[in-house]
Structures are given as structure tokens and as C-alpha cells.
Amino acid sequence: MQSALSYSTLDNGITLITLTNNSSDVIAGRIFLKNAGARWEQRTKAGLSQLLTSVITKGTEKLTALDLADKIESMGASLGADASFDYLLFSLKTVSSDFREILAIAAEIMRSPSFPTTEVELEKQLTQQNIRSQQESPFNVAFSQLREAIYRDHPYSLSVLGTETTLATLSEADLKAYHQLYFRPDQLVISLSGRLEPEIARNWVEETFGDWKNPPMTPQILDFPLLISKPETRSTHQNTQQAIVMLGYLTPGVKSPEYPIFKVLTTYLGNGLSSRLFVELREKRGLAYDVSAFYPTRLDQSNFTVYMGTAPENAAIAQEGLRSEVDRLCTTPLSETEMQVAKNKLLGQYALGKQANGEIAQIYGWYETLGLGINYDLDFPDQINAVTSEQVQEVAQTYLTEPYISLVGPESAIYSSPKVLS
Length: 422
Prior knowledge:
Largest sheet: 6 strands, mixed
Radius of gyration: 23 Å
Low-confidence stretches: none
């Protein structure tokens, strides 16, 4: 598979990655827009990236939303857009014979969107409903207040959706200004996988994107100061049938040499039914409805978070249990068996996540967009296998000593927390 991988750069700066995979008559593409997304939004414009990706497929200078839907559906194809903190993403897939046409449609959507006023207002309403719905979810409330505590004024502190307040102020003019500033060919990474040859793929991309010129104005690359961990406890009262207990820690991002170490640590502690948290806190002690850990991939500083959904009367002991399991990482080295099981699970899931053309296009384009390069697909397993128990303990002692704490649940559960009582 690796020998079929091709990498090139067009004259206007577009990065093209092509992987020939003839196992099925399908081509999938991922088009990443670097230096865009929620990280680059002004705080007063939070949610602008997500709103743009919701509306950009709803009309161009030549095609209405209905025209686009008819063209895409008549091919049995799929084409969508989404926003993350660190980039924007366009996803497309169709049978090989139709891919040239779906690529041309994607180019038109990206280069000349119309942002119809009615569609903009409709998407704003739908997003506001989504925000309100998330505010009713104890988990989302807990993670939102944890994120705000950890990241403070950094854009990572807010949801990609923005807030009801910021969303209400966004306009068609904001979308057009954002598009004009950030959509440019030298920020595009086009990653294709399927039944196609690199030379043909390059010709298709040249036809659809090759005459796109870079605007003279370069987007400002925001540079946020390094965050300093200042743990605190935040709580929200909700009359729910369960309490959410969440502990978070400020950690390095994807370009840190500690990134693979945290991946192993997260897998050991909170990935699946055999993970340490699940076995110790749910199976043995019966504390948890749901318990896990996660470590998001971020360009800037990330966060390592453990959480539990539990009965309100167990909130205090649940917090102590989570804290105890994280503290154990600082004091007790993982055994050789524990390390190997975590690595095998992580690498097995990594391999299984690259079966379909869309997944293959995603992983190579994602690595290139994050600045790791396409060879990171080979480097990552080697880095995981090289992680030692001593390294896991060292990063735990460095980063996982004092948590931010987020609590959501009935008032009785909140005030039973040892941190709140203190």
C-alpha cells in the first residue's frame, strides 16, 4: 500500500496526496483547509467556521442548493463539509467513473459559494437548537465548563458551534469575509484514495483547482501564549438521575514527543471494556454507568481527561476513585504485560481504522495538515512500540498531578464532592 502513495505540490501551492487502491471501484477524497477553523476565530465570532461549513454546500454562484443536491444524489455520491478547531474538512466519495465530476462540484463549492441569506438564517437557527440541546446533556455541560477552565481565553475553550450569543451576531457578510481571507489554494491539502492513478488525479485537480490564484493578503497566524496549568473546580446543578464527575489536565499537543506516550496512557486507562478505569471502577466497584478517558489531538496544547457518570449519591467516591487511578500512574510503573496489552490494542485499532478509502484519505491528509507529514503513518507505530513504562510514569508525574475538576448533577451530589467541601 505504501509503495502506491504519491505526493506532489501544484504551482499554486496545493498539496496533492494520492494512494492507488484497486480493491473496489470507489474513490474517496478529503480536502483539508489548513490555518482555518475555530482556533482562528475571534472570540466575538465564535461558531463562524462551523456555520460556514454548514452553509457552503447550500449554493454557489451558478447552482442552487437544489441543483447541488440533484447533481450529487444522481451519482449516488456524497459530499459534505465540517469544521474542527485546527482545520476545515470537505469529504467526497463516489464510484471511479464519476469522481472527476464530484471533484469539480467540490471545487465550485469551495471557490464560489453564494451563502444564500435564507440558508444562513436557517443554519443559525438549527445550530442554536443544537447548542441548547447540548446544554441539557450533563456530559456536554461538564466538558464545556472543564474546557473553559483549562483554556480560558484560548479559542479551544469554546465549542466549535460557538455560543447562542455569538451565533446571533454572525451575518452573510462575515461568511464572505472569512471565505475571502482563508480559502486559498496554498492552504489546501487534497488527499485521494481509490481506483485512480497519480498522473490522472493530478490532471483532475489541475483542471478544477489549477487556475485558482492566491490572494495577496495572507491570513494572520494567531499565536497564543503557552497556557499555564491553574487547576480549579467548577460545578453546575442539574436535576439529573446521574452525576458527571470529570477530571482534566493540561497536556502537550500533537507535535510534542510526548504525544505517543499519552496515546498509550489513554488507551491503558480508558479505552474499552478491558481498560483500567472500566475494570476497577465499574466492574469491581460498581460505581460507574459510564467511565473512560480521552486525549484529543490538537495543534496547540491538548487535555487529558477522565470522567465518570455515576449515581448522585456516589459522586464523592467516584471523584476519589478517578483521582486514585490517575495518581497510581504517578507512583506505580505499568508492568510489561500492561504496556504490551495497551500497545497492541492501540495499534490494532489504528490498523483497523485504515480499511476504507475514506479512512485512508483521511489519515494521510490529516497528518499532512497537522504538519506531521505523510510518513507519520509509518512513524506512529514505531513511536508507540518504543514507549516505555518509565516514560508513561514520567509524563504522569509531570502533567497529571493536580486536576481541573468539573461536576454536574443534583445539588446533593455537587456538595458531597471533596473539592467543593474544601
